[in-house]
């Protein structure tokens, strides 16, 4: 079903808003693709690193599939498929969730932790090279403020 908008109802972007929006989109794509490229060079995807790093910070190095999917903005089924690939590589394992008979925990394995420890310096260098070292302290503060405003749903 298509929703037709009248020209009067659409709040078109003015030239300044259009430039800012396009710049934000280009920035997000550039940073994500550059850091993902650096991780790929060591055999990890961006989502692999996100799962490993998140689990490493959790008590017991574990998180429910539901919590992890929500953090990543993914569906549970998408994360489940991705976790299966990580499980086959020995990076994570699944354990039943005693509070949810249909759910499970993702648990960081020792191999997963070792992989993360090997990858972290490379990832941090990538983040520095592509973002942090290119911005002044004032830029970083402004970026953080903007990010906080945009991370919450409208």
From TrEMBL:
HTH marR-type domain segment(s): 17-152
Highest taxon of the lineage: Bacteria
Protein name per its UniProtKB record: MarR family transcriptional regulator
